[in-house]
Design a protein that fits this description.
The complex is a heterodimer of chains A (476) and B (417). Chain A is of the alpha+beta class and 476 residues long. Chain A folds into three domains: 149 residues, FAD/NAD(P)-binding domain (3-Layer(bba) Sandwich); 146 residues, D-Amino Acid Oxidase, subunit A, domain 2 (D-Amino Acid Oxidase, Chain A, domain 2); 84 residues, Orthogonal Bundle (Arc Repressor Mutant, subunit A). Chain A contains twelve helices and 23 strands. In chain A, strands 5, 6, 7, 13, 14, 15, 16, 17 and 18 form a nine-stranded mixed beta sheet that branches. In chain A, strands 1, 2, 9, 10, 11, 12, 19 and 20 form an eight-stranded mixed beta sheet that branches. In chain A, a hairpin with a 4-residue loop joins strand 11 and strand 12. In chain A, helix 1 crosses helix 8 and helix 10 runs parallel beside helix 12. Chain A is globular and about 60 Å long. In chain B, 21% of the residues lie in helices and 35% in strands. Chain B is built from eight helices and 29 strands. In chain B, the strands form seven sheets. In chain B, strands 1, 2, 5, 6, 7, 8 and 21 form a seven-stranded mixed beta sheet that branches. In chain B, strands 11-19-13-14-15 form a five-stranded parallel beta sheet. In chain B, strand 1, helix 1 and strand 2 form a beta-alpha-beta unit. In chain B, helix 4 runs parallel beside helix 5. The N and C termini of chain B lie far apart (63 Å). Classes of the chains: A alpha+beta (476), B alpha/beta (417). Chains A and B meet through helix 7, strand 18, helix 9, helix 12 and strand 23 of A and strand 6, strand 7, strand 8, strand 10 and helix 3 of B. Strand 23 of chain A pairs antiparallel with strand 12 of chain B.
Chain lengths: 476, 417
């Protein structure tokens, strides 16, 4: 029996767990997948929105603006890369200019600071590579970028360091009310009990709510396709360049990432399949076309990967955040969910205190976490010091991203521990470079097999049936 | 403090190019040499190329990759040329300072008199191909699969489709077949293969593996492990023709879609690169635009045969010794200009008057055409061939005689009727 069970180890569940782990209560996270950050957290725009987009008075507006304020400090404590690079929403017509003016007013009502609408010249002064058709732009200096899965992993890891438990491959099948709270049963028959149950199940949050007897809302996935370009392209622009929303939809963004790549996307397509993360030729074409209108000089021959994320679009039009008899919904958290995550965690603590939980600060709780892949950004002298203490840092495994054996071993041994190659990838950036794992995958398999104590042939890409090899030679 | 060593010649990379450059420099009399190799042994990618076909030109006999590498490795060891393994070079600066690291010495710097860049190349990954669909396990570059099979003894799959008909893909089609896998097809986006004719014969035809030219993969299927690919023919603009789409069940997709010279260090040093080759712009000595820094092998431009890598590396190694002795004579500056049908030349520039072998590649298959080299209007050389193909590197020699009396500082290379 723990005080609080959280279903879902995405960025919402993770940041909540981290906040609660600093307080005097016991926490366990239940995750369906073989790793954390496997849903929308893994594939989204990686933006901390300024907060001008959501309608005044909505939870989205309130939590976005507050979350954006809290994010800088949270990322600093967790050792997560964060850059306040500012956002530009670019328009192409007089009609767009009007929309931008309206967005500015809406943003100011939401409490966003520093907004201004710029003409083409002023926008070009900030961002010289804007597309030739761009005629105006809304500038939001408080817009920022962060890596969502890095934030999630750091939050869950910090929570675990402070005593929270993480149970993976726990696919919730049944939720029952007990005298003291809840009993949660997984498909494979494992049982957990708690006083409080938090639903942070992302695109499945409506189904978890139903299991708990709440069918007041539904969630459907909205597919978004992205393209990621080589680090050579990351300096093309400094700001995140959004497209002015129009009758044609919200449009895509072009943004540098905190790791120095260039990210383009997403498309927006409402679907029903909650696992459909394939990319399509049409979707990727649309991304390319729109991106080229917003920013010129994008080297499309430097694409290193494409992917699809699923946003959790709720039937209410807003986040579903409420509490009833100890069951807390953090549901339908679509954009700006990442931006709002620290504020959502704060809200959860408030809710629980109102229910009478004391939640006093935990003695000896550690707020800081050591960043994992800082090695490549160090000076030669700093690297030299690190290597003196641990020579495995002198052994480069991933050449493209300069990830060393030392970093990989640290990642494999640090909370939350990875169990597959993609897990190492998200923690260390190994295989994320321009060769996409061509050189280092066989070495990573070796390290992981050894650390996990399993056969080389049993290492998977991302759990389940995703084995990299099918057997030994001569035996196939 | 970071230790700074002094070396006359530092060779970055201990593959066939690096070893040949070091041996050539030694034979020219240079003794203060250091090879830096990032892997656990000398030999580079040849270590995993266990098939034969290497060394016909260089040694007049057919060797496997490891055998070919061993010939050079033995020379390096017999001559006592120093080398460091498991050592990664992280920076080369324009003043020829090399920063490297390994477990034994941590980070160290070497002030080099001359440097030979011999870092090789890497394969073009899936992302660059931009194929729609899911992202399951079972998709590898041909070289990664080669490493699994030949070095680790593991099979990456049972039913294989190969995209791209580069030489490694063709070699792996045969390897996977010999190991018991079923290779269902090799697809090539272009109307011709980029691989060597002999590999198409020996690796595909001999095993009845279909080569589908002007075809590509348009969708990847499978949630956890690859379950199949949709393939389609492409039109002359390389756009898929939807009516020709066909589903092929498979658990493995190997990619052999080109090699890219690995020039992060070169770029970091501020050395100008050739947009077409992806390697440094060099003169006939394989000297880059920064004096004393040379490049050879696949880091400079992708070769078909290792024999030519060795040949080129010898030029670079010997020239590096001349540079160290201050004997380099650069008296002219003649730019070699490719017309587009000739995609590129190496060297790109000639700086001394002597017999110079020029390597070049063409952009398409040309039958019964000739290579024409012009000095302004004047035809300097014309050479007819029944077939020029992108997959086969060509050479032509410019004699000292020809170079002596040019009217222009540019030679134009063209393919004409």
């Amino acid at each position: 029996m723990v005080d609080i069970l959280i279903i879902g180890a995405g960025v919402i569940g993770g940041v909540c767990a981290r906040e609660l782990s600093l307080l005097d209560c016991s926490v366990e996270i239940l995750e369906k997948m073989p790793d954390v950050a496997m849903g929308a957290t893994r594939a989204n725009s990686a933006i901390v929105h300024a907060g001008f987009d959501a309608h005044e008075g909505s939870l989205k507006a309130k939590l976005n603006v507050r979350g954006s304020e809290l994010m800088e400090n949270l990322t600093r404590e967790l050792g997560v890369k964060y850059q306040k690079n500012g956002s530009l929403v670019v328009g192409f017509s007089d009609e767009d200019q009007k929309t931008l003016e309206d967005l500015k007013i809406r943003g100011e009502r939401n409490g966003v600071k520093g907004l201004s609408v710029l003409n083409r010249e002023a926008a070009l002064a900030l961002e010289p590579n804007l597309g030739d058709g761009v005629s105006c732009a809304l500038h939001a200096p408080s817009g920022a970028i962060v890596c969502p899965y890095e934030l999630c992993m750091a939050a869950v890891g910090n929570a675990m360091d402070n005593g929270a438990a993480l149970t993976l491959n726990f696919d919730v099948a049944k939720i029952e009310r007990t005298q003291n709270g809840f009993r949660v049963t997984s498909k494979d028959g494992r049982v957990r009990e708690s006083k409080i149950l938090i639903n942070a199940a992302g695109v499945y949050s409506d189904e978890i709510a139903k299991l708990a007897g709440d069918d007041s809302f539904s969630v459907h996935p909205r597919r978004g396709e992205y393209l990621l370009l080589d680090k050579e392209c990351g300096t093309l622009i400094r700001h995140t360049v959004f497209r002015c929303p129009s009758k044609m939809g919200k449009g895509i963004l072009v943004s540098p990432t905190v790791d120095g790549n260039l990210l383009l996307g997403p498309t927006a397509e409402d679907v029903t399949d909650k696992d459909d993360t394939k990319t399509t030729a049409n979707g990727l074409d649309l991304v390319r076309r729109q991106a080229a209108e917003q920013v010129k000089g994008i080297a499309f021959n430097k694409i290193i990967t494409s992917f699809t994320g699923l946003r959790s679009v709720g039937s209410t039009g807003d986040f579903v955040i409420n509490e009833k008899d100890g069951f807390i919904n953090l549901a339908a958290i679509e954009s700006p969910g990442l931006s709002s995550s620290p504020a959502i965690a704060e809200t959860v603590v408030d809710m629980l205190r109102q229910k009478g939980m004391a939640l006093t600060p935990k003695k000896d709780a550690v707020r800081e976490r050591r960043p994992l892949h800082a090695f490549c950004d160090m000076t030669a002298e700093e690297k030299s010091e690190v290597i003196k203490n641990d020579p495995t840092y002198a052994h480069v495994i991933c050449r493209c991203e300069t990830v060393t054996e030392g970093e990989i071993l640290a990642a494999v041994r640090q909370n939350p521990k990875p169990h597959d190659i993609d897990g190492i990838k998200r923690r260390t950036r190994a295989t994320m470079g321009r060769c996409q794992g061509g050189f280092c995958t066989p070495y990573l398999v070796e390290i992981l097999a050894k650390e996990l104590g399993i056969d080389y042939g049993d290492v998977t890409k991302f759990g389940g049936a995703s084995k990299l090899n099918v057997g030994k030679t001569k035996n196939v | 403090m970071i230790e700074v060593l002094k070396k006359k010649l530092v060779v970055i990379g201990g593959g066939p190019a690096g070893m040949a450059a070091a041996v050539a420099a030694y034979e020219k009399g240079e003794r203060d040499i250091l090879i830096l190799e990032r892997d656990t042994a000398l030999g580079g990618i040849l270590r995993q190329c266990i098939h034969n076909g290497f060394g016909l030109h260089r040694f007049g006999e057919e060797l496997t990759g490891p055998e070919y590498a061993y010939r050079y490795e033995k020379q390096v060891k017999d001559l006592g040329i120093p080398y460091m393994l498991d050592t990664m070079v992280i920076e080369v600066s324009p003043d020829r300072t090399v920063t490297a690291m390994n477990k034994e010495h941590g980070i160290f710097r070497i002030q080099a008199g001359a440097i030979v860049l011999a870092m090789g190349c890497r394969e073009r990954p899936k992302g660059a191909l931009n194929i729609a669909g899911t992202r399951p396990a079972g998709i590898y570059t041909a070289g990664t699969a080669q490493k699994f099979v030949n070095m680790k003894g593991y099979m990456p799959g049972r039913e294989v489709v190969i995209l791209g008909s580069g030489d490694i893909g063709l070699i792996m089609a045969r390897r996977m077949t010999l190991e018991g896998a079923k290779v269902k097809a090799v697809l090539e986006l272009l109307p011709y293969s980029g691989g060597l004719a002999r590999n198409i014969e020996q690796c595909l035809h001999d095993f009845d593996i279909p080569l589908k030219l002007s075809h590509t993969v348009i969708e990847i299927h499978g949630k956890e492990r690859l379950e199949g690919v949709t393939v389609a023919a492409v039109d002359e603009n390389r756009r898929p023709i939807p009516e020709t789409a066909e589903y092929i069940p498979c658990d493995t997709l190997l990619l052999s879609c080109g090699l890219i010279p690995e020039n992060e260090l070169t770029r970091g040093a501020g050395i100008p690169l050739d947009r077409v080759t992806g390697g440094a712009v060099v003169d006939e000595d394989r000297e880059c635009e920064i004096p004393g820094i040379f490049a050879a092998g696949n880091v400079l431009h992708v070769h078909d045969l290792v024999d030519y890598v060795s040949e080129e590396a010898k030029i670079a190694g010997e020239a590096a010794v001349k540079f160290l002795r201050g004997e380099t004579e650069k008296s002219v500056s003649i730019a070699l200009k490719a017309d587009g049908k000739v995609r590129y030349t190496v060297p790109q520039i000639i700086k001394s008057v002597k017999d110079t072998k020029v390597y070049f590649r063409v952009a398409d298959v040309y039958r019964d055409k000739k290579l024409v080299i012009r000095d302004g209007e004047k035809i300097l050389l014309s050479k007819k061939k029944p077939k020029f193909a992108p997959g086969e590197m060509e050479t032509v020699t410019l004699t000292a005689e020809m170079l002596k009396n040019l009217s222009n500082c540019q030679l134009n290379f063209a393919i004409e009727d």
